[in-house]
Amino acid sequence: MKLKDLLNGLDYNIETKLDDVNIEKIVNDSRKATKDSLFIAYSGYSEDIHSFLNNAYNNGCRYFVVLKDKITNLNLKDAFFIYVKDVKNALGIIAKNFYGNPTLNMKVIGITGTSGKTTTTFVIYN
Predict the structure, then answer these.
(1) What is the mean pLDDT of residues 60-79?
(2) CA distance 74 to 108
(3) pLDDT of 37 above 90
(4) Which of 101, 15, 100 is nearest to 64 (CA)?
(5) Contact at 8 Å (CB) between 125 and 107?
(6) Model confidence pLDDT, tens digit, residues 87-98
(7) Residue 10 — very low, low, confident or very high, per pLDDT cuts 50/70/90?
(8) Is 61 in contact with 34 (CB distance < 8 Å)?
(9) Cα angle value 13/24/18 (rounded, 5°)
(10) Average pLDDT of the segment spanning 103-113
(11) How deeply is 102 buried, as exposed, middle or buried, from its count of CB atoms within 10 A (0-12, 13-18, 19+)?
(12) Which end of the chain, N or C, is more open, meaning fewer C-beta atoms within 10 Å of its C-beta?
């Protein structure tokens, strides 16, 4: 999928035009990064994923979605950074664009309460 299509609907800043770049997969694990992947630096609770950009780069990745203030002292020649204000939001938009927004085809029902949930789900199912 073209990178420009993946970024559709996303508020981002980029230093160069990347219209013809083809992305085969999106990753958040530097060990799974390859030359055709887009690495999204979405950090969890305990570690800052931005510290793994070098690992992803060494595995061939050249395209990164990052927070601009986290990119310091990196010497990654021929790497391209897509700067966003909220990486979590960017991950959602990019995943939706990449996978075709599968939630549009789902029916979701929520059941809450202290009793009767199992019975209610079986009635709805049948």
Answers:
(1) 85
(2) 44
(3) yes
(4) 15
(5) no
(6) 999 999 999 999
(7) very high
(8) yes
(9) 30
(10) 85
(11) exposed
(12) C
Given a contact cutoff of 8 angstroms between Cβ atoms, the answer to whether 79 and 62 are in contact is yes
Residue 38, amino acid: L
| Residue 22 DSSP one-character state | B
Cβ atoms of 115 and 100 closer than 8 Å: no
Extract the tokens encoding 71.
Answer: 């990119």
The Cα 35–Cα 15 span in angstroms is 20
What percentage of the chain has pLDDT greater than the value 70?
98
Structure-token match 């002292």, residue found: 73
Buried b or exposed e, range 53-70, using 16+ CB within 10 angstroms? beebbebebbbbbbbeeb
Q: How far is CA 102 from CA 91, 95, 110, in A?
A: 15, 10, 18
Which pLDDT does position 48 carry in this prediction?
A: 79
DSSP state of 60: T
70, pLDDT greater than 80: no
